[in-house]
Design brief:
339 residues; alpha/beta; Aspartate Aminotransferase, domain 2; Aspartate Aminotransferase, domain 1; 2 domains; 7-stranded mixed beta sheet; 4-stranded antiparallel beta sheet; 12 helices; 11 strands; 15% strand; binds pyridoxal-5'-phosphate
């Protein structure tokens, strides 16, 4: 058994996956009497279980073979799948670097997996000394989750490649990478069989409603994901919406340019406000802002129908503000001026 196989749960290694009607016959022409579908209607047929057209388009754009791509019902589905493939409930452990995206911990809880936290340093980077200490002290660490650019701090994480030397799966969540100038870890995919890069259609591509997340990884990991996922996990409507978004390069580029510009403008405008103590530099589509009183700022804005995220529970007196349209941002700035 190789290093990667030894990380997989025994029951998953032995699992004989469900074979759907579309697994057994994948052609698109014919009289289809094999899947107990209703012969009438517009949405009567099951979706392509392997999202071939969408993967081909992604493959072209990212220069990654289709066999190294997995599509999930949002990245959140993929995070849960990774737990179910690699972590034995009640026995295995994962590492996270808080403050970070909350779903790693929630998914761990759902799967009864212990989370070892290695807090980010004061400049929101990885504390490698503590990371190595934890990996030496703990057996059964199966997954390391790192989010870059990180939510809610907004910064890119440095030296991620150093994590890949450990004997665990490393999930690099790049949900916000398109808003940053930092390169994706996708270029390292061929070098590390334990690397999973997560990206999503929910942020830069503006498709949060459609629930489409993407994992890029070696073939072995993608095969395991295909084995464990529900057979028709991404609807035809969502596959079509995602494909359309990929074809609309121009619109995406225009929106990204607008978001960069607004991020800069909102940053400058907030800097001068009485309530604001510090604004952290951001590689994402949001700003982490330290204010004098996060609860007050949050509640006053809610009264004006402007909803931001109060992150005081994770970083003292900090709020996270998503960059909106220029009009929305003006409303935010005006209300904050009046505080
Ligand atoms: C870091 C990070 N990863 C993943 C997600 C969820 O992505 P998806 O909408 O693809 O499930 C979010 C959503 O806010 C996020 O911040």
């Amino acid at each position: 058994m190789n290093r990667l196989e030894s990380l997989v749960r025994e029951n998953i290694r032995a699992l004989k996956p469900y074979s759907s009607a579309r697994d057994e016959f994948s052609g698109s022409e014919g009289v289809f009497l094999d899947a107990n579908e209703n012969p009438f209607g517009e949405f009567n047929r099951y979706p392509d279980p392997y999202q071939k057209a969408l993967k081909e388009k992604l493959s072209q754009l990212k220069d990654i073979p289709s066999k190294n791509i997995f599509i999930g019902n949002g990245s959140d589905e993929i995070i849960d799948l990774v737990f179910r493939i690699f972590c034995e409930p009640g026995k295995d452990k994962v590492i996270t670097f808080p403050p970070t995206y909350g779903m790693y911990e929630v998914s761990a809880g759902i799967n009864n997996v212990e989370v070892i936290t290695v807090p980010l340093t004061t400049d929101f980077q990885i504390d490698f000394k503590e990371f190595y200490r934890q990996t030496e002290e703990n057996q059964n660490i199966k997954i390391v989750f790192v989010c870059s650019p990180n939510n809610p701090t907004g910064n890119s994480i440095k030296n991620i490649e150093k994590l890949l030397k450990c004997n665990a799966i490393v999930v690099v969540d790049e949900a916000y990478v398109d808003f940053s100038g930092s390169p994706s870890l996708l270029g390292k995919l061929l070098n590390y069989s334990n690397l999973i890069v997560l990206q999503t259609f929910s942020k830069s591509l503006g498709l949060a409603a459609a629930r489409v997340g993407v994992a890029y990884a070696g073939e072995t990991i993608i095969e395991l994901m295909n084995k464990v996922k529900p057979p028709y996990n991404v609807s035809t409507l969502n596959q079509k919406a995602a494909l359309k978004a990929l074809k609309n390069h121009e619109t995406t580029r225009r929106h990204l340019t607008m978001i960069y510009k607004e991020r800069k403008r909102v940053y400058k405008a907030l800097m001068h406000l009485n309530q604001v103590i510090k604004i952290y530099p951001s590689d994402a589509n949001f700003l982490l802002v330290e204010v004098k009183d996060a609860h007050l700022v949050y509640n006053k804005l809610v009264e004006k129908n402007i909803i931001i995220r109060n992150r005081d529970s994770v970083i003292k007196n900090c709020v996270r503000i998503t960059i909106g349209t220029p009009e929305e941002n003006n409303q935010l700035i005006n209300e904050l001026k009046n505080l």
